[in-house]
């Protein structure tokens, strides 16, 4: 299956869909990531706080797919934002993964009350200069957080990974990303376990196009310009979620799904201005 790419603001390419690995751990994680790579995923999303970097590394090695064909993302946790901690944390991620570089490293949450995310960003910029990280990004940043790191370093994050699904379509953030040249990556792209599969516009589009509601939601992600990273432990669903480049939603279908958005649509109230994760 041929997966299209986005071109990042640093000139590198990133697959237009990826594989999320939270909350997989242990053998289940190794099996799920190995199967994801086998069915065709090339972008794998992990994080220090998922506690599964070793398993992801193991699956990558087992896959036999050349390293330069894979795109591995990890994330720096809130407790490692101080400059030296960020450098050490990233080197430890590489050790656990058994890799010599990350394709993308993200600041997991800005934790604005601690105010250390600009320092963490400076560390990532230096890690990129050293070649340990190829592309730099952030997660759960607001426009204000993005502008602050850009103003302080002159380096614009290539990616901002944010909560994005039909109940929380992030129109404003997507506009900001377009203005700044940042790729929008979507976490919980299917709306997690509360998946909005029964919503009438999703169910109707699935019937019209002869696909599953999950495929409709992921196709909607692609058409609004976002890069979804669905998680599934099930090989059949992994394959289904990847198979979203062979049909197209109409503009009306896209608008109707975006119209499901609501101000309180976040899954667990993860407002980056107030929600903090260490
Ligand atoms: P998600 O991908 O929206 O949904 C995953 C859930 O949907 C799982 O329970 C999965 O079950 C089920 N599912 C997957 N495909 C399906 C299909 N085709 N039909 C029916 N059900 C399906 O939610 P998520 O795991 O929260 O988010 C994806 C990734 O985003 C995470 O794995 C993680 O890498 C990342 N993330 C990042 C942040 C952040 O702060 N940056 C926060 C949350 C998540 P099965 O496994 O049983 O198939």
Rg, rounded, reads: 18 Å
Low-confidence segments, given as residue ranges, are none
Number of strands: 10
> How big a fraction of the residues is strand?
15-25%
Helical run tally: 10
Order of helices and strands: EEEHEHEHEHEHEHEHHEHH
Q: Could you tell me the CATH topology label.
A: TIM Barrel
CATH homology-level superfamily: NADP-dependent oxidoreductase domain
Q: What is the helix fraction of residues, given as a range?
A: 40-55%
What is the CATH architecture annotation?
Answer: Alpha-Beta Barrel
Structural class determined from secondary elements: alpha/beta
Number of separate domains: 1
Largest sheet, in brief, is:
8 strands, parallel
Bound chemical compounds: NADP nicotinamide-adenine-dinucleotide phosphate
Specify the overall morphology: globular
Distance between the termini: 38 Å
The CATH first-level class comes to Alpha Beta
For the residues shown, what is the average pLDDT? Answer: 97
- For the biggest β-sheet, the strand order reads 3-4-5-6-7-8-9-10
């Amino acid at each position: 299956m041929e997966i299209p790419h986005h071109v990042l603001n640093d000139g590198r390419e990133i697959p237009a869909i990826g594989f999320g690995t939270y909350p997989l751990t242990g053998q289940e994680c190794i099996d799920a990531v190995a199967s994801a790579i086998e069915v065709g995923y090339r972008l794998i999303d992990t994080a220090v706080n998922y506690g599964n970097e070793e398993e992801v590394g193991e699956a990558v090695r087992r896959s036999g797919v050349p390293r330069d064909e894979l795109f591995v993302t990890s994330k720096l946790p809130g407790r490692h934002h101080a400059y030296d901690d960020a450098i050490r944390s990233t080197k430890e991620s590489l050790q656990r993964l058994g890799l010599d570089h990350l394709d993308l490293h993200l600041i997991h949450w800005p934790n604005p009350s601690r105010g250390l995310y600009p320092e963490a960003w400076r560390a990532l910029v230096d890690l990129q200069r050293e070649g340990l990280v190829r592309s730099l990004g952030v997660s759960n940043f607001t426009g204000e957080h993005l502008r602050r790191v850009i103003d302080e370093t002159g380096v614009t994050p290539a990616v901002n990974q944010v909560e994005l699904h039909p109940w929380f379509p992030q129109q404003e953030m997507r506009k900001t990303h377009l203005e700044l040249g940042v790729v929008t990556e979507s976490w919980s792209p299917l709306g997690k376990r509360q998946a909005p599969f029964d919503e009438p516009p999703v169910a109707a589009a699935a019937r019209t196009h002869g696909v599953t509601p999950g495929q409709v939601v992921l196709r909607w992600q692609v058409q609004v310009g976002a890069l979804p990273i669905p998680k599934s432990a099930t090989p059949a669903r992994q394959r289904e979620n990847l198979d979203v480049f062979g049909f197209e939603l109409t503009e009306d279908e896209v608008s109707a799904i975006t119209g499901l958005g609501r101000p309180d649509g976040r899954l667990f109230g993860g407002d980056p201005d107030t929600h903090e994760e260490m």
